[in-house]
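[[Sequence with tokens]]
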Amino acid sequence: MMYADTMIDTMSNDSIKSHTKQMRNMGLASWISLSTAVLFVYHLFSDGDFSFLMTLSSMAQAFGMVMLCIQLASAQSAKGISMKSMQLHAVAFLFRFLSTLFHEGYLPLDSSGDVIYRLAEFVGLSASCTALFLAYRHFGHTIEFEKDTFGEVGPFIGENAKFSAAVIATPALLLALLVHPSLNNVFWSDVMWTSALYLDAMAVAPQLFMFHKTGGTVANNTAHYVFSLGFGRMLQLAFWAFSYHELSEGSHGGFIGVFVILAQVVGAILMADFFYYYAKSQQKGGPMVLPSAIDMV
């Protein structure tokens, strides 16, 4: 019996190792595909302008949402995924897409901004809506509302937790109404773009809070999803840091450029810890493992 148990344990370990290797290879293949697509777009559609960073940022974030859809479909589960973050990302993609669909003030200056940027934004929006549909329609019984507790106050607990993304969305919208650039020179469009900017910076907070609260192993595609969105924001920060003069012109809001940069910096700070553990897992070639809040006490 002990021999049989040992054989079963060995087979189980081999199966886990095989699955881990398969997921790692799939992740690598996905990143190679993204890199190939970026090089293709850069070669055919970019003028070599610095503004291509915006297109690359949009492609990275769209890639992240696609990876989330793959995670949901392959695992047949929404375990470990924050519904609040998904909702906020979907709203951010929607606002940014509508703003850049009808106006060109925030589009990349090179030719990639004509089609590719908008296409990437549409893919990101479609993927975020698809992820929400899969999570709520097909895998609702696996959603961990009891762990997705960022920003919960008063009655926002248990089943009602899925509605409390407004704790982040409402202040972001109000701030955008008061403080926004005017590159489009259209009030609603500028407010939408700025709302997306503020939402983008904070949308990942519920997911990071959920990671921090529970700890443990993070599914590969979930890790790629969060990293890609954070990487996209880092590219946006780099672009606006070097294009700050456009936002600092009096006709475009003057001091408002400070808020644009600050929002990007806040997003980068929130992601710093996650980036460290993600890089560590990629270096070791194993799954991403996060310490829980309990373990750190």
